[in-house]
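Internal tracking record. Fields below are filled automatically when a chain is submitted to the structure queue. Please do not edit lines marked as system-generated. If the sequence contains nonstandard residues, flag them in the REMARKS field before resubmitting.
Queue: standard
Priority: normal
Entity type: single polypeptide chain
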Amino acid sequence: MTQAEHPTKTPILLVDDHPVVRDGLAEAINKERDLVVCAVADERHDALQAAEATLPALAVVDLLLKNSSGLELIKDLHARWPRLLILVVSMQDEQVYAERALRAGARGYITKQQATRNIVAAIRRVLGGDIYLSDKIASSVLGRVMANPQATSDTLTEGLTDRELQVFELTGIGLSTRDIAERLHVDIKTVETYRSRLKEKLHLKDGSELLQLAIKWNHDRAQSGEMPR
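SYSTEM-GENERATED OUTPUT FOLLOWS
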């Protein structure tokens, strides 16, 4: 289904590497009389090609993509097409990643659990010029972003890159190096490199200290209500 076939509808680019999720979102969007999915992609290169070919009004982007990072894709899309609106739909923790997504150029963040019911509402909010976030974190995140575009909410992780933060978080929930590599669609050596960088940046002696700190970080966020338990 393309915009050429539906010239009066608002074109939406859908970027997600899970076919079932992608198909479900596309079905919900295409049911709307004024919206249409103009292209789909499951990784960065294809998404950039699709955006160039179809010139969508809005891109719906997952953070964990095939062979690539959704946050890096958001930065690329925003740099090439500053007027393109971007909505993140992800399983990643909103409290941690929504702020980073907004700084990268996104205009909204919705979890996949919420998306089954609220994807169209989120799309319409962003298309209308507003930012879409859950009520739980909207005030705190937007307040920090507007007050200081370069700041982050977590002093422990503020010096980490987006990918390093993902590895740190996944380490803290007990995933092995192989599991993290599979989750992030990278090879094991790449994850080991990220772990080495984490130990250096966080001033840790070994992998055991990294694991303990990552577990504590996840636990503290769960206790404070910043992430699901």
